[in-house]
Design goal:
This protein has 12 helices and 5 strands. By secondary structure, it is α/β, with parallel strands linked by helices. It folds into 3 domains: 62 residues; 55 residues; 170 residues, 2-Layer Sandwich (Nucleotidyltransferase, domain 5), CATH 3.30.420.10.
């Protein structure tokens, strides 16, 4: 005969009969339970002089049951201990699931079961996710976050259409531009524009990241350069680059856009941003930096020897390339 625990209805009947003074033997006959089951139920829930109450007895039963089921949540204690041990040694759930059958013949488990165990409400407090490769505190989608594969910028020309020889950095006049932001509470940003072949850098503080503000700045700075230095400009898909056709008209320059979330496609300016962070740490309010200090930083960047330039400075490399152009003309 299959054993069945007392339920809330039976506990309420038990309480009523105890109130009437029925003996445990009589109660057991009425409930169809053994006398020992009734005696244990009453004894467990009337310790320290507490009166038997069905609601409290039911809550205690559920609490103990949940705790017992928690002891071996992964099929059996052997699997449970194996998974915990291997997680702590740095194995991924996929590795554990693939290996367990070799170490414990006849046993199998899926990676999904292990992930659900790690991120279950009872287990997450033990921080087992900290042993995973990426240590995410919350469960992520298996396929990763979805990203746009196309630009939302109107009339944007993909970097795929940019001539392949530009990647070799042999020709002067190919630029990349980006905005460096401070804390979210500040609207001020730093405009960073870099020439790919020489790493020559132009910096300016902008009062906001609006498209018109950045465009006017770029036209002001780049409009003073000779035509041979204005061939292409590569941008990301930020809202500040929405009105890129204005740059094309004013500067007669071809503008290209990286793929969404492919910042490495404009790696020159990204590398320059990293260099700037040595002087302007992340979280610094750009508004608090004077134009004079930004000009000093631009001077430092353009007058620091670079290994990729044969230890010439960007300014020296730029002067050298302009000298070659003047001889040809």
């Amino acid at each position: 005969m299959l054993f069945k625990h007392l339920g809330l209805i039976e506990r309420e009947k038990l309480y009523g009969m105890l109130e009437k003074g029925f003996s445990h033997r009589k109660i057991s006959r009425i409930l169809g339970r053994s006398q020992s089951s009734v005696s244990r139920e009453v004894e467990r829930n009337t310790k320290w002089g507490v009166k038997y109450l069905p609601c409290l007895a039911q809550a205690r039963y559920k609490r103990i049951g949940d705790r017992q089921r928690y002891k071996a949540p992964l099929k059996n204690p052997q699997v449970f201990l194996y998974v915990r041990e291997k997680l702590r040694t740095g194995w991924s759930p996929e590795t554990i699931a693939g290996r367990i059958g070799l170490d414990i013949p006849g046993i199998s488990i899926t990676p999904e079961t292990i992930y659900r165990y790690i991120y279950s409400s009872r287990i997450i407090k033990f921080h087992l996710a900290g042993y995973l490769c990426f240590k995410h505190g919350k469960r992520r989608k298996q396929t990763g976050r979805s990203v746009r594969k196309y630009s939302k910028i109107p009339y944007a020309i993909s970097i795929d259409s940019r001539a392949k020889y530009i990647s070799k950095r042999k020709q002067l006049g190919h630029w990349e531009s980006d905005l460096m932001e401070g804390p979210r509470s500040s609207k001020h940003v730093l405009s960073v524009t870099v020439e790919r072949a020489t790493r020559y850098t132009m910096l300016s503080r902008l009062v906001n990241k609006k498209s018109d503000t950045k465009n006017k700045h770029l036209v002001s700075r780049m409009g003073k350069l000779p035509a041979q230095m204005l061939r292409t400009l590569t941008l990301d898909n930020g809202s500040e680059n929405t009105n890129h056709t204005y740059l094309t008209r004013q500067l007669s320059i071809n503008v290209y856009f990286c793929h969404p979330y492919h910042s490495w496609e404009k790696g020159t300016v990204e590398n320059t941003n990293g260099r700037i962070r040595r002087y302007i740490p992340k979280g610094t309010d750009i508004k608090q930096i004077s134009d004079e200090k930004i000009s000093q930083l631009e001077y430092i960047l353009n007058n620091t020897p670079r290994k990729c330039l044969g230890y010439l400075t960007p300014y020296e490399k730029m002067s050298l390339e302009l000298g070659k152009i003047s001889k040809l003309t």
